[in-house]
Amino acid sequence: MVAINEIKVANAKLTASTVPRVSVFVGGTSGIGKATIKRLASTGFPVKIYVVGRKSTRPAMEPFLDELRTANPKADLVWAEGEIALLSEVKRICRDIEAAESSVDLLFLSAGYAPLGGTRNDTPEGLETTHALQYYGRILFTLHLLPLLRASSNPRVMSILAGCFLSGSIDNDDINLDKPGAFGGFASQARIGTLNTVGFDQLAADKDNAGITFIHSWPGAVNTGNMARYWKPSTFSFFPWTELMKPLFFFMGVSHEDSAEKHLYQATTGTFGGDGPKVDGVKAANTAGSQGRGLYLLDDKCEVSYNAKTLDNLRAKSQAAVWAKTTEILKPYL
């Protein structure tokens, strides 16, 4: 376990050369992403932060962004508007960023959707929304921005979801839970978390990405509001799960402030590759079993935590099928 006080000390050692100079936050209009943007801007360094969000969230975000600009006049906060549940919009947003930047240091992916009532909701492009937002969209953002990430001296891709959790198997004939009865609130979250690990493990194994750090992390019990925001009454959920989890948030929850410290640490520490500040005595191995760049699967204590045998089994039995399905779906948007 990396103590929060140690994390804060490490973050305080950030410099203009170790902080992400150009960042793209997808899911930064609330919860973990918004808190991390605030913490990053508060470093006082000349950082440029793209905040990707829907049109409906802009009125609430503008005062927040203005507040950050006042607190750090060196910070360049750029609003990038788009409906990120649509892969065509992901492509458009990435094209705009590619046209404006020569490199990107941090891609922070935290857009959430939690249909724990079990109601399936497909996008106009035909993808179930959870899959679109939390897997396919995240991989598409990454693929489009890979050239800019490779051009950075300290690139990092972070997917905030379920890093330390892995399902033991995937039905290779029903990767998107399309079969009758397969989809459910909890089933979708478990599948999406595993797809993130398998997909980013595929990218990390590509020799062309050897200079990039990938992180799939579990943030712990952070009250982001997703469970209430997307709740609809159902047989299994008469009221938002957030209400049931209030005691958990009270006794075991992670505050937005501490979550932001942890994610800034994950985004910058040299423990996961690069030259950023480290906590003395803390070492970590990626999914290839080595130190340095690669994919790190982290728990809410910022420690590597996963079942290696389960990951090996998924690599052997499902990774090829998952990546084939991923490329099939994303091909029209590349």
TrEMBL record:
Signal peptide: none
GO MF annotation list: oxidoreductase activity
InterPro entries recorded: NAD(P)-bd_dom_sf (IPR036291), SDR_fam (IPR002347), Sec_Metab_Biosynth_Oxidored (IPR052228)
Matching SUPFAM superfamilies: NAD(P)-binding Rossmann-fold domains
Pfam families (UniProt xref): adh_short
Domain of life: Eukaryota
Keywords (A to Z) from UniProt: Oxidoreductase
Keyword hit for Oxidoreductase: yes
UniProt KW Nucleotide-binding keyword: no
Name of this protein: Uncharacterized protein
